[in-house]
Amino acid sequence: MMTVSNTSGSAIAGALERILVLFNRVRREQLRRRHLNGESAYLLRLAAQPAGVRLSAYREQVGIPDARASQIVRPLAATGLLLVRRDQDNGRAKIIEITESGRKTLAELDAAVEKALMADLSEPASRTSDLRENIVRLYRATKPPK
Q1: Helix residue spans in the chain (DSSP H)
Q2: Domain extent listing, the chain
Q3: pLDDT tens across 73-114, in order?
């Protein structure tokens, strides 16, 4: 098993912290430009699953009441990013599905965040080059499948 010295461990932790701060700043700005927030972006990602997501499952996963879930869903459905339909197996349950417009919005968001991150991480130093490559690999690995 490989060990990491405290100095390099601290450097890695510091670098990751800076990256997270940068990522959060860039992501918030890109969400704001699309009139979205973290809650709505998360719902879009869940709804992008092949079968969509039950509204109740989303509520439970995020830990929000019915009223708040409806406040998040309504504008996304009104702008054509989500489709809300009744579950065929349980007529009272609602299924939330992403539309093509929603998929396009998510793809644009991901591309814009990646581009902005890469621009901010484009220092010419070789030490940031390896770090940048690993960040891109990690980011791409965590993107949901299309």
Answers
A1: 6-33, 38-47, 55-62, 66-78, 100-120, 126-142
A2: 11-142
A3: 999 999 999 999 998 888 788 999 999 999 999 999 999 888
| Residue indicated by tokens 């990690």 | 138
Q: Which two tokens stand for residue 3?
A: 């060990």
* Complete DSSP assignment for 66-90: HHHHHHHHHHHHHTTSEEEEE-SS-
How many other C-beta atoms are found inside a 10 Å radius of the C-beta of residue 29?
Answer: 12
Which amino acid is it at 22?
A: L
Helix (H), strand (E) at residue 94: strand 94-98
Q: What is the dihedral of CA 53, 54, 55, 60, to 10 degrees?
A: -90
CA distance 123 to 51: 42
Q: Identify the CA nearest to 68 among candidates 43, 99, 86.
A: 43
pTM strictly above 0.85: no
Assign domain 11-142 one CATH number from 3.60.10.10, 3.40.50.11810, 1.10.10.10, 2.40.50.140: 1.10.10.10
